[in-house]
Amino acid sequence: MVLRATLPIDEGKRGSARNTHPVAVALARHSAPQPVEAVPVERPVPLHDETAIALVRALRELHVLLRSARLYDRQHPRMLQSLDTSYESLRRMVSSLGGLELRVGRFGIVAPSLSEEALPDPRGDLYELAKDLQRAGVQNLTFAKKFHVGELDTLAQLAGRTLLQSEQPATVQEGLAWWPKKLLESRVEGISVNTQAERKVDTVLSSLIAALVAFGGPSSQAPSHAPIHIPQIDDLIAALRLLARLTPPLEAARGLSPEEAARSIHAAMEEANRDTVNLLLSAISQHAPQEAEQPQAYLLRLSEALIFEFVGPEFSSGKLTAPSVRPLFQRLAEVLVNAGGYSGPHASAHLSSLATMWAADTYREKRIERFWLELPPREKSSVFRGTDVWCVPTIALKQTLEQLAASGADAPRREARNILLNYARQMDAGDASSRRIVAAGLNELTALIGSLWPNQVPEDLSRGALNALEKERTPQTAALLAAFLETLGRLAVTRADYASFENVLDGLEKAPRDAEHDHLSALAHRLVAQDRWLLLVDAALANRALDPVLPRLLQRDPERLLDRLTLLLTEPRGADLLPAMARLLRTIGVPALNLLETRLYEARRQRVSAAIKLLAVTDPERLLRGLARALASWEWHLQDLAVSELSRPVNAASAKTTAFVFSAVLADAHPLVVPMMIDHIGLAQESSAVAQLMEIAAGEHEVLRDQFVRIKAIEALGRMRALEAAELLHSLAEKRDGLTYAESAGLRAAAEDALALMEGGPSTNRVRAAFAAAAASNGTYVVSRRYARVPLDSPLRAQIGGAQAGLARVKSISLGGAYLESPKKLAVGDSIQLEVRSGLRKIHFTAVVRNIGAEGNGVEFVHMRDEDREKLRKLVQRHL
Fold this sequence. Notes:
Elements: H1 14-17, H2 22-28, H3 51-71, H4 77-97, E1 100-105, E2 108-110, H5 125-135, E3 140-143, H6 149-163, H7 172-185, E4 191-193, H8 203-216, H9 233-246, H10 258-271, H11 274-286, H12 295-316, H13 322-338, H14 353-359, H15 361-374, H16 377-384, H17 394-406, H18 410-425, H19 432-444, H20 446-452, H21 459-471, H22 475-494, H23 498-509, H24 518-527, H25 531-540, H26 549-554, H27 558-569, H28 574-588, H29 590-599, H30 605-618, H31 620-630, H32 636-646, H33 655-665, H34 674-683, H35 690-697, H36 707-719, H37 726-734, E5 736-737, E6 740-741, H38 745-759, H39 764-771, E7 790-801, E8 806-813, E9 817-821, E10 831-838, E11 841-852, E12 856-863, H40 866-879
Antiparallel strand pairs: 1-2, 1-3, 3-4, 5-6, 7-8, 7-10, 8-9, 9-12, 10-11, 11-12
């Protein structure tokens, strides 16, 4: 019950202020208020700074004090410590508020100076305090500005004696007077209990209450102190009907004169019997008007109180079941609506304000939610464990689950999980309305699922939602279940619970492929859309053991997987991700590799480039197969990328096959790529290409007649020790056209070096130092080093031309490349024009960046003029 409280008053006025409320005087002769069991509910109170929080803390200390008074002797150290702590907390609050007024209400403890709603009580401490105070007969409690610790001690001792039943009033009426009497005997002046403050009550309400008292009066069949019987449903309906009929005459908007309103009030009461009036009077005695409360607001609050005072006991006794709560509220609302019109001389088609509020679905839903929020935990728990849990509004279910989850202990969290799983099992309920309610509720509870199951989504939950979705034929419910299942999928991916995610996808994909099940196919597509797909790919590329579920998930859409990998390869970290990509693609196998091979023939350069890189590290044989068909259609950079990737030292096992394919497509390759292909043929000792290399070296090839390419072919013949080419090489080195040699100096020098490697001679050791020593340093480079690189004691100056123009220093150099120190940011695959100055000489190259180091870049020479080649050869020889 809501009990009245007093404001702080002067001691001189204390005696005259007691029991002077006009409504209280009229009702005191009629009936005594009956205590009502309070229930815990967290109802937010507007906070003024941190006043409400401090007050809640002080009341918790007061609760500890009252319990200590029952457990310990008055001089016990625990009792004294609790008394000091409670007094200091209350004293600070009383000082800051200028007095403290507390009211023991249905919802817990009310502090009217802050709000008419109960103070927030998430842990239920104030609920327990309210119960103790009610059992002790305390309806309201007031602390004046000047109260001392002795008065608080007296209050605690008196409350302890009443709770222990060593001293307890016989009747409620005696209890109302017992506390003021005992406090007066103990000379307690700073604390007041059960005193009534004089309040301003609307005159219309005062007239209404006086009319009710005059019409009802004390029953002649029972003494005035007899308890009121528990009303039945018919009694409640009659009281609500009377209340609804009394509302229209009190509304000023209807323009009734006082005489007309009075006649309407008396007409309504004449239609009701005395017991109905007495029941309404009893409710008014328990829920008196508040300070300056308007009639419409008060009667609306009174109607709520009548209904809740009936519904609560009915549910607790088992007469009212969970599925019957909502229909009962609707039935009682219909009573108020149907009886809420006015049929006087100024009849109106509009409903009264009371009827209008109860006719609104939103208002009724709020009242139903309030009923479940205020229900005792034990009774709620029995509903949560049963099949009627779907009847509980989501807000009440969520509040209970949050409280259990916040406890931190295993048992409450386990109970919360069981409640949620039981609620989810109702998705298979036979009634379409209940299934829709559960589906909507689960979508609102998804945030709690993550907190209750921090590691993985329970299989029972996802499997139950999937089965329910397959059976559901109502579009609205099916949409809600699909949204819930999609949320579970997102949660599973976020928690790295890929097995649960796969189970959901498998279940959706097993559904029949027809129009009736199109929504399941659409859901399966949405589950792996956008952010979840990106999360799956990132997880598969993470630097940890590959989860076996991830390849199975990603192979469902290899096209989208390759698009994602292609995009990642364009990022700065793309090269670092290549090993992880290769691991993933090798695990997926044929579906991804076949698609990669087809991408070699596409027109989009980015896709072709990514396909080359990925096939080179996963399946070089496929890249070689595609190279033979696609090389001629590729631009120079793509050809260079493919050839350099296939020439990597890591592909040494397939070097012979690569060399054979290179020899077959030499004529189709770009002139800047051919030198690297010829070098690889020579290093791989591919003897089948000797005839072609001799043709190139002789300058008789139909396409490949460039001087630099001819030099490369001669060097390859020398590396292969192709004795059948010795005669050709002698001819190239010695043939004259009159007094001059027929071939250029650079080509003749290359032929002499090749002959030295084949036949031996004075220059053999020098040539071997330039060619054969390169094998020892091949391991860490992208492309196999074909020549020994020599360090330079004094770095040479160099000029980078083209788009990457800038200065550089050459720290080491060879016949095939150099290492440049440069502030310019170069990328692997960039082509540059390079000018190296050695003394007064200038050597010009076309080079390609092959690797990036901490201080510079390694470049490969892919073309140079004959005279530049000879200058480079002499420079290298001087430093060998």
